[in-house]
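Collaborator request log, item 7. Partner lab (contact: R.S.) asked for a structural prediction of Sugar ABC transporter permease to inform their binding assays.
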Amino acid sequence: MLTRRPLVALSFALPALLLYSVIVIYPLFSGAYLSLTDSSGGPKADFVGLDNYVRLFGDGDVWDALRVTLLYAVVVVVFQNLFGLLLARGLYNRPRARKIVTAFVLLPSLVAPVMAAFIFSYIFAPEGALNSFLGAIGLDSLQRVWLGDPSTALFAVAAVNIWGFAGYSGIIYLAGYSAIDKDVLNAAAIDGASGFSRFRYIEWPLITPALTVNLALNVIGALRVFELPLVMTNGGPANSTTTITMLIYRNLFGSAGGFAYATALAVFFLLLVVVVAVTMTTLLRARERRMF
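Returned to partner:
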């Protein structure tokens, strides 16, 4: 009976493994092979070795796009977690409002990124809602062509991402808060811990698992951003919002014969995301073990 159990387990897992192989494994290895050819998307492809990767590392557009992508990720991750944490702490201290507010803070994450991009394109327009509001309250000096200025365009796009998913991050932090033993908080209150000291020495260490989950999801999501800059700015102005994913898109559907090069870019970016995600998760898990 014991010898049959692995076979039974394998028989249940086999359909999922086959589906995963067809949808994920095969395209992954097929793409890796195509990146070593001169394929233009047709049936004919000659092996060229690492030529596409040599071109990639010498392409200034790639490094500019990588810089934009990393800056975007840093802005999104920092502010999304900051607002999410503030939201979670506020809701945790107000249990009566928690059930009602929780439903509303999740609504932005249900809006499709393309729809959110169109909506905020009108808000950030020169005659849009944001500039009109600033003019109405006497802050005309702060009015900008938000999506047409290289110094503000990337941050405007990042603001849409933060708006969409700060509530989602807040709910994850709220789950972390809910897992804290109330006796620990009561003991801290008796010892005189309150305000920032209570947050720093009691709450922050105990919600470390929620931080790990949020950072992993936020970093991967921010690095993979595509729809928002595509719809809102199309990578402009002056390529100030051109991310790696947009560069892949341009090479894939733009210049003739760019299919193999775009595939090499995609493989390079996949490896970069994997390295960042694994390194960050490993460090955060190590931090969790030190905390507990």
